[in-house]
Amino acid sequence: MQKPRTKKTTPKTAAKKTPKKTARGPKPPAALALLHDPRPQFVAIYKSLFGKPEDPTNCRNLQKALDEGDLKNIRELLKQLAGGLEVELTPSDIGLFREVSLKTRPMSPVNTDDDIALQARRFWRAAVWGEVDDFLKLTDLIHAYENQEQGSQTKLVTRLKEMVPGSDWPLPHLSDLVELTAEEAKYQPLQWWRVSGNAW
User: Fold this and answer.
1) Is the terminal CB of the chain with fewer CB neighbours within 10 Å at N or C?
2) Contact between 44 and 81 (Cβ < 8 Å)
């Protein structure tokens, strides 16, 4: 009697997974993922603060309001700077504005030294009015400097001087710039990078 034929089976093999491509270079700030959808009130605020770097009036008014600490007045002033647009900021977010506005910070637009304050405002104007691709490159340079890569300081300073002709970038300025731009988890609510390319 013939034995019934059995169907031969072959063991299944796991499908080959194609490794995901990863972007080369340092990981940019998380806020960069949102560059194409900036909140218009931030664009308006930064245009009001840094549109005319030689005029510190709006920056000083904001810094004064932040020092006084009245949240209602701060929100009202930010609304004025935003051209009447409502600005939804938590007390924590407003605290970040207060940190950036400390007069002792090298990158503060209201530094006690008028020359340092003007350079800071000129930088932030270049940041807000710059193209997105330019700031992706700047971010790479900042991360390279933060990671102490060879030659990174020279490259970063060269780029900053291109952005702000005639500027000086000693170590305290570079360190403060790294803190404000590389610590994306802390300063992301201020959306420095999201407004880039959207100011005009």
Assistant:
1) N
2) yes
The whole-angstrom separation of Cα 149 and Cα 42 is 33
Distance (Å, rounded) from C-alpha 85 to C-alpha 137?
31
Residues 150-180 have pLDDT tens digits of: 999 999 999 999 999 999 999 999 999 888 8
Which residues lie below 8 Å from residue 191, measured CB to CB, with a gap of 6+? 31, 34, 38, 39, 42
Please answer whether residues 57 and 49 qualify as being in contact, where contact means their C-beta atoms are separated by less than 8 angstroms: no
- Give the torsion through C-alpha atoms of 53, 59, 61, 65, to 10 deg: 180
Q: At what angle do helices 71-81 and 91-100 cross, to 10 degrees?
A: 70
Residues with Cβ within 8 Å of residue 85, at least 6 apart in sequence: 40, 41, 44, 79
Span between the terminal Cα atoms of the chain, in Å: 89
Which segment of 8-22, 57-71, 129-143 scores lowest on mean pLDDT?
Answer: 8-22
**Cβ partners under 8 Å of residue 27, min gap 6:** 143
CA 39 and chain centroid, separation: 14
Q: What is the pTM of this model?
A: 0.73
